[in-house]
TrEMBL record, chain A:
The lineage of its organism: Bacteria, Bacillati, Actinomycetota, Actinomycetes, Kitasatosporales. Belongs to the complex I subunit 4L family. It is a multi-pass membrane protein. It comes from Streptomyces liliiviolaceus. It is found in: Cell membrane; Membrane. This is NADH-quinone oxidoreductase subunit K. The chain crosses the membrane at residues 6-23, 28-48, 60-83. Its EC number is 7.1.1.-. The gene is nuoK. Its main location: membrane. GO terms for biological process: ATP synthesis coupled electron transport. Pfam families: Oxidored_q2 (PF00420).
TrEMBL record, chain B:
It comes from Streptomyces dioscori. GO terms for biological process: ATP synthesis coupled electron transport; electron transport coupled proton transport. It comes from the Bacteria. GO terms for molecular function: NADH dehydrogenase (ubiquinone) activity; NADH dehydrogenase activity. This is NADH-quinone oxidoreductase subunit L. InterPro entries: NADHpl_OxRdtase_5_subgr (IPR018393), ND/Mrp_TM (IPR001750), NU5C-like (IPR003945), Proton_antipo_N (IPR001516).
TrEMBL record, chain C:
This is NADH-quinone oxidoreductase subunit J. Gene3D superfamilies: NADH-ubiquinone/plastoquinone oxidoreductase chain 6, subunit NuoJ. Its EC number is 7.1.1.-. One of its GO terms (molecular function) is quinone binding. NDH-1 shuttles electrons from NADH, via FMN and iron-sulfur (Fe-S) centers, to quinones in the respiratory chain. Couples the redox reaction to proton translocation (for every two electrons transferred, four hydrogen ions are translocated across the cytoplasmic membrane), and thus conserves the redox energy in a proton gradient. Keywords: Cell membrane, Membrane, NAD, Quinone, Transmembrane, Transmembrane helix. The chain crosses the membrane at residues 31-50, 57-79, 85-107, 119-139, 159-188. It holds the Pfam family Oxidored_q3. PANTHER family: NADH-QUINONE OXIDOREDUCTASE SUBUNIT J, NADH-UBIQUINONE OXIDOREDUCTASE CHAIN 6. It is a multi-pass membrane protein.
């Protein structure tokens, strides 16, 4: 097997995640889909790292994880405060930004 | 001695400032201040003239640098004067005739309550005109040029309570603007071509410049001259300008200002010499105006308008001569000077007649005035003999030379121009005889006006007759003094150069034919107006007469072509603006509005919709990248 | 399993030098990829398609563990462990906490509300995926170097060397980012009390003044078969009273109505006893 298959898998997971972001209305699930996309990217980075024979790709994946952790913390806080004020976790309910 | 030049301009300028700013307390002495300062300018001119005569020919031109006007790198404009033989001729003519007319105006304007202001304007005119002829560069000349235009405007409209005078002033100003445009373009062209405005460098550099540029400059200068000197096609203002007081007509619209165009062309002689096309146009303009003015002069019953037509025609002679190049410059100036004498004299005579006839200007209501105004009759008669070119008088010498020079142009052009000039001489004799006969001969035709005041023709006061007598002397002797022994030619030759023309027929033959056509013209006029009584009410007349009475339809032409044309142009422009420009602008706005209305729907506020567009954008980016790699 | 995979990778690294030009993995890894890859894709699809968010979270956790295995297979031992510990362990638990807050049993409707959104999403997803795969296929990625050399001194040591030298600034900045995120989360969720908390007495007085519910709120209904907090108590006429359920459940709409349960049970009992006594009944009919 050619390790380039890892990249195809990453692309597939990324696309599934992105479609999930577009389809789901529950903010928590949307968030999970974003995490899925980030993980797909990480997989690609790790595969690239192996491809080029150095560890920079893994470093980038590591940083992605850190940033994802920070993002999850803030994002979930936002979801919680949103749920508190609106009693709903639907992203469509927060549609005030229209003309 | 050089420092006196500025005084020439300063004296009348001081007079204008004092009289116009002085207010009513100067009313009693205003006319004396004006006259004294004008005369002072003449005295200074005379002193400078005497000084100039004392030098040898080579060193006669002097100059005075007053101050640097616009000192910018690469753009030097100075207020500097130049007094050579040409300028000196003009200075003496302007200040001399100007002073006489100041004296005349004291009597003529006696009953006008705004006399002080009138003298202020006259002084302003003198200052501007002197600036025009003394300037040593074109930019300063332009200042004087505009100054005389302003003074002319103020003086034509001096009786501003008359709507006709106010309109005439505006008309003169507007038509002159067209010419001034030409002068300003010519000056700009000069600056781009030569990098300077000063006469010396510009005229020296003509040798190394392309003919096309010089032709353009020459034509623009000609346009300026046409405006100021009332030449076709910018001639329409002169007849209406007669609405001004008669001394104004005599000084500005006969003797001095209207000759500024001739001065400009002669001064720029080197440019015209190097641009034969411009010269040809100049001669054509001169010849056309010569006939135009003469024909108009034949038909007018208003004595001043008849004289105005004559002025136009005589300046046509000068422009024609100036257009002939070195063979004509001297004669143009010579005719200009003699014309200054006799035409000013004729106008003053006309003013004197009007003064005695309750300001009546219609010649058909004069008749037999020679018994009532003997001095006016004699001086007017001498002016008349001078203008028709009676042998021995001023006009004979100067006009004869111009006709000779026209023939000397050579070829078919020479024949045509010479014949036109000869024909003009015949018509001149005709219309001047007509004026003379209708005014001073025949039976009295005046009647009481509607208020029952019958005019009592009487001789004018001495302040008016003396200038007329002096000018009559000039009309009689100036030509002979200048012409015999080519005195004027030698005087002016160092400045304007001179080439002796060789007419295809002998000079004597030309002189003889000139005299002959003059006699024919006089005879025809006598047959028409001397042997039969002149009808008080003008007969209907032929088509040409009627057209000539309307100034050969010049105003109709201007109205139809320029005014109507302008109206149509603006209307179509407005239409285009409304439909096309506004249509495009409003259409753009409307389509933008419609498009935004559609695009607005994309902004539905749902984050997921925005995410779709982002995701689609990312897909397009990848597609573009792949495409670029593939290509 | 991890150790085994590590050993597997080690053996890979051993022949890396020989396989520089045309790199291919061992058959074992290929088998592992195809099996676990399928699991990962199914997990991802379930994450997107499950109605309940708690199911989504569990599926995602599964996918992440599969990914951790893939990291290990690719020689990223440190990341593989971190993936399990941080992602699957910490972050997914955080998600579960929030899911509990919002309501574990709350199921989303999968019906689309924005017109054309689903079609557009599918179109974009398909296009994006195809383009991405085309891009990967287009790039000539046949040469894999392998990590044998980079991991020679140990994977963790290699990463540490890079983090503390080349990427030290980025590392420091991510530290600052984490602190900022923690503070931000606190600010976002913390609600400052703007007035003094009301005492029991004040609450009681307020209730009397409002004259709405003078006695204490009724207790939830009791139904022996369930944790009965989410069951409304019955009023004397047999209708359920929502006042008896706590407001949080009321807002989530998680009240179970059991008011007709007793009648249903009774009916079922009657039917069952009727069936059992069927013979007797028939006999009675026959007697008639």
């Amino acid at each position: 097997m050619n390790p380039v298959n890892y990249l195809y898998l990453a692309a597939l997971l990324f696309t599934i995640g992105a479609s999930g972001v577009l389809i789901r209305r529950n903010a928590i699930v949307v968030f999970m889909c974003i995490e899925l996309m980030l993980n797909a990217c990480n997989l690609a980075f790790v595969a690239f790292s192996r491809m080029h024979g150095n560890l920079d790709g893994q470093i980038i994946a590591f940083f992605t994880m850190v940033v994802a952790a920070a993002e999850v913390v803030v994002g979930l806080a936002i979801i919680v405060s949103l749920f508190r004020s609106r009693h709903s976790a639907s992203v469509d309910d927060a549609s005030l930004m229209k003309l | 001695m050089d420092n006196l030049i500025a005084l020439l301009v300063a004296a009348p300028l001081l007079g204008a400032a004092v009289l116009l700013c002085g207010g009513r307390r100067l009313d009693a002495v205003g006319h004396w201040i004006g006259t004294v300062l004008a005369s002072a300018s003449f005295v200074i001119g005379a002193i400078l003239f005497a000084d100039m005569l004392g030098k040898d020919e080579e060193h006669r031109a002097i100059g005075q640098h007053l101050f640097s006007w616009i000192p910018v790198e690469g753009f030097q404009a100075d207020v500097a004067f130049q007094l050579d033989q040409l300028s000196m001729t003009f200075v003496l003519l302007i200040t001399g005739v100007g002073s006489l007319i100041h004296v005349y105006s004291i009597g003529y304007m006696e009953h006008d309550e705004r006399r002080r202001r009138f003298f202020g304007y006259l002084n302003l005119f003198l200052a501007a005109m002197l600036l025009l002829v003394l300037a040593d560069n074109y930019l300063l000349l332009y200042v004087g040029w505009e100054g005389v235009g302003l003074a002319s405007y103020l003086l034509i409209g001096f009786w501003q309570h008359k709507p006709s005078a106010a309109t005439a002033a505006k008309k003169a100003f507007l038509v002159n603007r067209v010419g001034d445009m030409g002068l300003s373009i010519a000056i700009m062209l000069m600056f781009t071509t030569f990098g300077t405005f000063a006469f010396g460098p510009v005229l020296e550099a003509t040798g190394e410049t392309g003919e096309g540029k010089l032709t353009a400059i020459g034509l623009m200068l000609l346009l300026a001259a046409c405006g100021k000197s009332a030449q076709v096609p910018l001639q329409s203002w002169l007849g209406d300008a007669m609405e001004g007081p008669t001394p104004v007509s005599a000084l500005i619209h006969a003797a001095t200002m209207v000759t500024a165009g001739v001065y400009l062309i002669v001064r720029s002689g080197e440019i015209f010499n190097a641009a034969p096309d411009a010269q040809l146009v100049t001669t054509v303009v001169g010849a056309v105006t010569l006939l135009f003015g003469a024909i108009v002069g034949c038909a007018k019953d208003d004595i001043k308008k008849a004289l105005a037509g004559s002025t136009m025609s005589q300046i046509g002679y000068m422009i024609l001569a100036a257009g002939l190049g070195p063979i004509g410059y001297v004669f143009a100036i010579m005719h200009l000077v003699t014309h200054g004498f006799f035409k000013a004299g004729l106008f003053l005579g006309a003013g004197s007649v009007m003064h005695g006839m309750n300001d009546e200007v219609d010649m058909r209501k004069y008749g037999g005035l020679r018994k009532h105004m003997p001095v006016t009759f004699v001086t007017f008669g001498l002016g008349y003999l001078a203008i028709i070119g009676f042998p021995g008088l001023s006009g004979f010498f100067s006009k004869d030379k111009i006709i000779e020079a026209a023939f000397a142009k050579g070829g078919t052009e020479g024949w045509i121009l010479g014949s036109v000039a000869l024909l003009g001489a015949a018509i001149t004799a005709f219309y001047m005889t007509r004026v003379m006969l209708m005014t001073f001969f025949g039976e009295k035709r005046w009647q009481p006006d509607e208020k029952g005041n019958e005019p009592h023709p009487h001789e004018s006061p001495r302040s008016m007759t003396i200038p007329m007598i002096v000018l009559a002397f000039g009309s009689v002797f100036a030509g002979g003094f200048f012409g015999i022994g080519d005195r004027f030619l030698h005087w002016l030759e160092p400045v304007t150069e001179h080439a002796h023309g060789h007419p295809p027929i002998g000079a004597t033959a030309i002189t003889l034919s000139t005299v002959t056509v003059m006699i024919v013209g006089v005879g025809l006029a006598y047959l028409q107006y001397g042997r039969r009584p002149v009808p008080v009410v003008a007969p209907r007349g032929s088509l040409l007469t009627r057209a000539a009475r309307r100034d050969l339809l010049q105003d109709d032409f201007n109205h139809v072509v320029l005014v109507r044309g302008g109206e149509h142009l603006t209307r179509s422009l407005v239409y285009v603006d409304h439909t096309l420009v506004d249509g495009v602008v409003n259409g753009t706005a409307a389509s933008m509005g419609g498009l935004s209305g559609r695009l607005r729907k994309l902004q539905n506020g749902y984050a997921r919709s925005y995410a779709v567009s982002m995701f689609g954008g990312a897909a397009i980016l990848i597609a573009a990248t792949l495409l670029m790699r593939a290509v | 399993m991890t150790a085994q995979l590590a050993a597997h990778s080690g053996s890979l690294a051993a022949d890396a030098g020989a396989l520089l030009a045309a790199y291919s993995t061992s058959t074992g890894e290929a088998v592992q990829f195809w099996i676990l890859g399928t699991v990962a894709v199914i997990g991802a699809l379930c994450t997107v398609l499950m109605k309940k968010s708690v199911h989504s979270a569990l599926c995602l956790a599964g996918t992440m563990i599969v990914l951790a295995v893939f990291y290990l297979a690719n020689g990223a031992y440190f990341l593989g462990i971190v993936q399990v510990v941080v992602y699957t362990g910490a972050i997914m638990m955080l998600f579960l906490f929030v899911v509990m807050l919002v309501g574990v049993t709350a199921a989303d409707s999968l019906k689309e509300t924005i017109k054309g959104q689903r079609w557009l999403a599918l179109l974009c997803g398909l296009g994006f995926g195809i383009l991405l795969c085309a891009g990967i296929g287009n790039a000539s990625l046949t040469e894999f170097e392998g990590l044998a050399q980079a991991n020679a001194g140990g994977n963790v040591e290699g990463l540490a060397a890079l983090i503390f030298t080349k990427y030290v600034f980025a590392f420091e900045i991510t530290g600052a980012l984490l602190i900022t995120a923690a503070v931000g989360a606190m600010v976002l969720t913390h609600r400052e009390r703007t007035e003094r908390a009301k005492t029991q007495r004040e609450l009681a007085e307020e209730r009397v003044r409002a004259n709405k519910q003078l006695p204490p709120l009724p207790a939830p209904g009791v139904y022996a078969r369930h944790n009965a907090v989410d069951i409304a108590g019955l009023l004397p006429d047999g209708t359920p009273s929502e006042l008896t359920v706590i407001s949080t459940l009321r807002e989530r709409g998680q009240i179970r109505d059991v008011s007709d349960q007793a009648i249903k049970d009774l009916k079922a009992l009657e039917q069952r006893s009727g069936e059992r006594l069927g013979r007797e009944g028939r006999e009675e009919e026959a007697a008639k």
